[in-house]
Amino acid sequence: MTDNVLKAGIKKTNIPKMLRKWGLLLGLILLVLIFSLSAERFLTVMNITNILRQASIIGVMALGVTFALMVGDFDLSFATLAGLLNVINIILIINGWNILLVFVLTVLIGVIWGLLNSFLIVKIGIHAFIATLSTMTIAKGIIYWITRGKTIYGQYPEILTVIGRKNIIFNVLPICALIFIVFAIVTYILADHTKTGRYLYSVGGNPEAARFSGIRVGFYRVLGITASSFCASIAAIILTSKLTSAPPNAGEGYLMSVIPVVFLGTVFLKPGSVNIAGTVVATMLIAVIENGLIMMNVPFYFKYIVHGTVIIIAIASITGAGRKKIGGPPLV
User: Fold this and answer.
1) CA-based nearest residue to 165, from 236, 241, 102, 240
2) Taking the model in full, what pTM does it have?
3) Which of 71, 74, 130, 322 is deepest in the core (most CB within 10 A)?
4) Distance CA 172, CA 182 (A)
5) CA distances from 215 to 81, 192, 200, 219, 331 (A)
6) How many angstroms separate the CA atoms of 142 and 80, rounded?
7) Residue 11 and residue 16: Cα distance in Å, rounded?
8) Among 112-116, 140-144, 312-316, where is mean pLDDT lowest?
């Protein structure tokens, strides 16, 4: 009798824990069902392809920001950086530069930008929020300086559109979505199954303890911050291939899509801790929400209300679980 009561009690207490751990995935499934019933074109092959294409840019950016959060820092400049790189890409390509060379230059600039952010944050000691807010503003100024506030477009080789617009595997899976999947797998292995990943989490969880353990805290902070800009440069390549033009505000819309993703991802599997699996699931959830709202003809500005609400729910969930901080391993 007593054993049965104990087992029932264990099962009862495990249900809330399971919901906290897997609730994000259940929410994604529920949203897919709701939108499928509310919008008849939601589950069409064409729309699924559109969701995957949208998720690819958001997801690649979010994976990078996840690494910055892992080491206890943050990056606000990633979206504007992607917009700036898109402007540079289009200008160079329409002026006859080799596309491969342009994309290599894009990644190089992204890494240099990350090192600049790292210098401001790690070496000078400026708070990550202030430092990247400043570099974001600088990038925005450069964009409007170059474009004069007008969209840049011109002749481009057709091969430019392959990454952003072409599909593979029965013409369903966008190439850009495949890039996101590859990045997700690689970053998951790096973060959860390598010594580097353990050190990144340690630095974010308790930098002083990590330093006393012989971990080069400064180096891993630089690595995490630079990873964010690197991923932004990859997203910029996808963006260039998708748009084939350079509107001055091309990257700005992704800021408030990616930030909810990285915070929402902290409630999945490891409540209170940023993690790659959570970022991937949250990416798909946000992409489904944005697409579903469009399919239901909901005014575009409701997207921002949803994004803000998502951040509040994510933080409230973590706080309710007794967490004190985002970044690094779970803190009890």
Assistant:
1) 241
2) 0.89
3) 71
4) 17
5) 30, 17, 9, 9, 20
6) 10
7) 10
8) 312-316
Of 95, 57, 56, the closest CA to residue 236 belongs to: 57
The Cα–Cα gap between 127 and 301 comes to 31
> What pLDDT shows up at residue 280?
96
- Tokens 């630089």: give the residue: 222
User: Would you state the pLDDT for residue 43?
Assistant: 87
Q: What are phi and psi of 326, to 5 degrees?
A: -95, 135
Q: Taking Cα atoms as reference points, which of 111, 106, 83 lies closest to residue 225?
A: 111
Rounded Cα–Cα distance for residues 2 and 22 (Å):
30
Handedness of CA 188, 192, 196, 202 (dihedral sign): positive
Which of these, 255, 314, 305, 273, lies nearest to 133 by C-alpha position?
255
Alpha-carbon distance of 222 to 293, in angstroms, equals 38
Q: Where are the alpha helices (DSSP H) in the chain?
A: 2-38, 45-70, 78-94, 99-118, 128-147, 162-165, 169-172, 175-193, 195-205, 207-212, 217-243, 255-264, 276-295, 302-320
**Which residue type, as a one-letter code, is found at position 278?**
G
**Residue 175, by phi and psi: left (phi above 0), alpha (psi -120 to 50) or beta?**
alpha
Name residue, tokens 């892992």: 70
Task: Identify the weakest region by mean pLDDT among 125-134, 147-156, 247-256, 321-330.
Answer: 321-330
Check if the beta carbon of residue 202 is closer than 8 Å to that of residue 213. yes
Distance CA 259, CA 75 (A): 10
pLDDT digits (tens, 9 = 90+) for 157-209: 999 999 999 998 878 899 999 999 999 999 999 999 999 999 999 999 999 99
How far apart (Å, rounded) are the C-alpha atoms in residues 280 and 256?
16
